[in-house]
Amino acid sequence: MKHAYFLPLSLSPLSRQLVMAGMLTTALVSTDLIINISHADNVTQQQRFNIQAGSLESALNQFAVQSGITVSFSPDVVAGIQAGRFQGSATPSTLITQLLADTGLQATLLANGSYSISKKSAPVAVTPKQKQSVELDDMLITSTRSDTQLKDSPQVVTVINREQIEQQMEMSSDTSQILSNLLPSFSPSRQKLTSGGETFRGRSPLFLIDGIPQSNPLRDGQRDGHTIDMSMVERVEVIHGASAIHGLGATGGIINFITRRPSQDTLKQSMNVQMTTPTGEFGDETSGYRTDYNLSGSKNDFEYTLGLSYERQGVFLDADGTEIGVDNVQGDIMNSKSYDLFTKLGYWIDDDQHIEASLNRYQVKGGNDYVSVDGDIEKGEPTTSVRGTPVGEAPYNRVLTTSMKYQNYDLAGMEFTAQAYRQEFEALFGALGSSSFYDPILAPDRIDQTETESVKKGAKFTLVKDGLFDDKLKVTTGLDLLRDNTSQNLALTGRRYAPEIIHKNYAPFLQLQFKPIDKVVLNAGVRYENTEINVDTYKTVFAKGGGVTVQGGNPDYSETLFNGGIVVSPLSWMSVFANYSEGFGMPDVGRVLRSVEVSNASVESLLDLKPILTTNREVGLRFNWESVNLEVSYYESDSDLGSTLSANADKTDYTIDREKQEINGAQANLGWKVNDDHKLNLGYSYIRGRHDTDGDGKVDSDLNGQNIPPNRLIASWQAEWTPKLSSFVQASYNFDRNFDEEAGDDEEQFKAYGLIDATMAYKLSTGKIHAGVTNLLNKDYFSYSSQTSYGSDTRNFKGRGRTLTIGYSLDF
Fold first, then answer.
1. Is 46 exposed, middle or buried (0-12, 13-18, 19+ CB in 10 A)?
2. First-to-last C-alpha distance (Å) of the chain
3. How far is residue 693's CA from residue 677's CA, in Å, rounded to a whole number?
4. Which domains are seen in the chain, by residue range?
5. What would the DSSP string read from start to end of 43-69?
6. What range(s) does the Secretin/TonB short N-terminal domain occupy (predicted)?
7. One-character DSSP codes across 440-452
8. The model scores a pTM over 0.70
9. What distance in Å separates the CA atoms of residue 132 and residue 127, rounded to the nearest whole number?
């Protein structure tokens, strides 16, 4: 197949929806994207710095990240100016003055503690309303392993900052909902504990916490989106498209949750309490509440952060005031309780060496107080809930993530980072009756519940050398190690459902960034993945061929993965980028091994264990004017041996189909900063996926809603009416879709729906009160997953009706 790097005009659905998006664009555009680094209350406090020699722009970025003080400037103002290297202790005010010495520039300290850089001959006018921000184009993206500036990235990268996280949490604490609200290429949230059917650009994203993998590819229970409370997160770095920089799993992209970091102050504390209720009914069963607390600070060479959160969620109601069906099997966040304990400790050994230890303990567990009542898809009747006690223990996620990190900013002129981590993951699923569980002695009634356990231990080593060839070349190299032990049991009968699988992986990598001239950035890299899977001889459960013995084995696979990209900036406000990258993933090995029904099978002979190699090609444009920014891109994502889930007749279990897949899409983000008080945002995503169903090597059918999200449009308006009163409104529209439209197959037709959410906040003399409303217009709709991939009488779920959240937060 030939791949064209332009948007095909033959895609009539895309043309129709781009016209609609264009019409909405004339009415709604977005703000300059900015990141809130942190509050900077004291610019005279001694701190340690390690500023590498190079451009002044790079030096100011390093200063902002290391000091926690935000710096705003125009790239034109600092263009062509060099800065020397600085290592040691200094106050931020002294260091920034030194960096600007003899440059003709000045740093203006704003009332909020941030700096604005301008020419001395024409200082900029500033007001107390200015945000503490560094322009997003100038931010360093740590998830690339080499601290790449956003403007130099040949891939689409989105950074969700702390302000956006807090804004979203005033309406919903659901991680999937937050991501869906801010990323048009992410599927609409299922509003459940499971993330099954929630994809990113039509493929699986790799979830990370501070670079630590949270996904469980060996037995993918699709719960990896719920391993941390968002109140513990400082920002989220999202790399769009396949990537191998963090190893296997990122066939759709990387979603890295960067946790809260210690304050430079002696002590800072924050707390938040809020209550949630449907607007149509207020009561103990339908109401929910949450509270979170954060403490951080530093003293001499020590740094510390502590976070606590607790949440109880009530029963969800649809727009008609009816209890939404509870998913007693895959798990639910309604009628649940969750908590998170997070701590991070740091210590400066000397001016260049830093060690850090972190721990995050998270659990979410259902209340087991409701049972679902089947709906009727043909009659349009939803699945609902009534009071009752389901069989077995309530579904839960229980996750412990620990890490130890060492950084040396001057190891023979290089920056060295070593990280060791461990993650313990337990996921219990609810009991159900399934033919897969049948055993004439242990389970004659076919009822059981599965439990997945995974322990991951790994290490990451990264070495960065910058400033080579007259500051034109940066070299990043490293080695990743991983050992993953995963198994799946049947909890009620004590049987082993999927055998213990030991996955060993090592992967050295090399990444280069070369700037031959100021307007061109070249990126290239290679990563060698070496994977071995160890499985002892095991016996399947009785339902699989009466219990067959499968010969164990140690299959191993290796792949050399490449990436390359270019960014060309012919004008200061415009850049063109192109990228090629490869991602490496594994199919659901546990699902394959537990499903063997034939005799004399062996692990090494199972073709389905071959890895998924995904190639991603992308081209795009970035425009960044004074108050308007725009990014558009077109991408293609292909895999010759993809992994597609297909449901059985009653949709209680799924099998894996290994087949060729081709996905293409386009996305756009447009912004407009109307003034200091009003900012608008618009994002659009188009996607189409096809797969080969007859094995002839040619794609012939649409990928279903289990794999492909709808085409989506999201928009938002942020306003500051007074220094104390602010508001935020967001809207999303999921366009209708008819899978296999060419064949006239209407079985999986998706009916479009749109939602509007809003929040308002008012600053008091002490603290802030806020109120948020989701589904403001009380839209009655069936969720995307219910209409497409997971739709059945038992899972014909509606979405939540209008819901109100009221809260109070305080920084002290």
1. exposed
2. 60
3. 53
4. 33-240 (2.170.130.10), 253-811 (2.40.170.20)
5. TTS-EEEEEPSEEHHHHHHHHHHHH--
6. 69-120
7. TTTBTT-EE-EEE
8. yes
9. 12
